[in-house]
Amino acid sequence: MSKAGNDNWKTPLGVYERSIAELRRTREEIQAEMHNLRQMQVSLGELSNLKAELEDSQVKIQTLKTDLDKTKAELITTQKIASEAQHRVADAEREANSAQKELQNLKQLMNNNESSNPQLIEIVSKLQEQLAQLAPINTASSQDDDFKRQIIQSISDLRSQVSKLSDELMLVSPATGKDYTKLRNLLADREWRKADEETLNLIVKISNRDRDGWRWLDRGEIALFPWQDLRIINRLWVEYSSGRFGFSVQKQIWQSINVANNNNFEVEKTLGDRVGWRVNNNWLKYDELTFDISASEGHLPSTVHILGVDKGRVEDRIRLLLSRRELQI
User: Fold this and answer.
1) Least confident stretch, 28-32, 187-191, 220-224, 320-324
2) Burial class (CB in 10 A: 0-12, 13-18, 19+), 170
3) Is 11 helix (H, G, I), strand (E, B) or coil?
4) Pair 205, 162 in one domain
5) Residues contacting residue 69 through CB under 8 Å, at least 6 positions apart
6) CA distances from 54 to 51, 66, 293 (A)
7) Distances (CA, A) of 23 to 6, 8, 15, 31, 137
8) Which of 38, 98, 160, 321 is deepest in the core (most CB within 10 A)?
9) Average pLDDT for the chain
10) Is 279 a domain residue?
């Protein structure tokens, strides 16, 4: 029996069973291979993704490197700017300190009256030149704005002081030493009557007419009146009235008048009519004048009263005053 069983594989049934067994092993092997292939496909996909990520990382690294190089360059530039700014500020501080000392010396000279007006003006001009040399600091890069702000403010304050001193010096006559600050302030405050009265007071004092009670000028005093003072008075009136008042404004009107035979008396009356000193053929008294910016052009200062119109005809004195070269238009 046993021998018969061992020989079964040689029978058709045995062959069939063996074939089935082999097919099963083959199927299992194929399934195992397919599983391995699927695993390999997954691995290849992951490898592809990893490669893409690696390439992306390389791009990012290159970008970061470029940015880093740019940042390094900007840092070097910033360091140079900061260094230059430090030098500029140091120079500016030295110049500002020097100018400040000069300013203090100037104030001392003005207080002690130890120097003539031209010398003071020369000192102010020197100070202004020093301050002008500090201007380049204002053009520095915005990157050091915070660094230079304080010194720039100090320089600005110093410039303001020098400018103020310069303006004040322009109010002091080098010929007579008269200070026209009060007149300037009255005009700036639009106190037109008080400014006109101050103008008269200054003129009669300079001409020594306040000693004898004659508060008006004659021909000789008009001719000798210092041109520096005449120019200061006129400049202040023109400046603070925006070109409406002043001796030079009156001169322009006077030069535009045409009358027969150039009769000075007729010119005087026509001028009075145009600037509002005459109404209905009558000269106005001082209290009747219009001390307001709305007055006729050339109405102030009240030249005819400075020349004594209430004492008689003043056509010759008007012509002499308005002919002065200092009253350029």
Assistant:
1) 28-32
2) middle
3) coil
4) no
5) none
6) 5, 18, 85
7) 22, 19, 12, 12, 96
8) 321
9) 77
10) yes
Residue 7 is assigned to a structural domain of this protein: no
The answer to pTM > 0.85 is no
Q: What pLDDT was estimated at residue 4? A: 46
8 Å CB contact between 209 and 216:
yes
Q: Are 234 and 246 in contact (CB under 8 A)?
A: yes
- The answer to whether 173 touches 229, Cβ cutoff 8 Å, is yes
Structural domains in the chain (count): 2
Quick one: tokens of 33? 């291979």
Tens-place pLDDT, residues 10-61: 577 777 777 787 777 887 778 777 777 777 776 677 667 757 765 765 676 6
In a domain, 69, yes or no: yes
Question: Are both 211 and 306 inside the same structural domain?
Answer: yes
Which of 140, 169, 198 is at the close of a domain?
169
Distances (CA, A) of 225 to 53, 81, 209, 300: 97, 59, 12, 19
Are 160 and 200 in a shared domain? no
Q: Which domain holds residue 308?
A: 181-322
The residue type of 79 is Q
Tell me how far apart the alpha carbons of residues 209 and 71 are, in angstroms, rounded to a whole number: 80
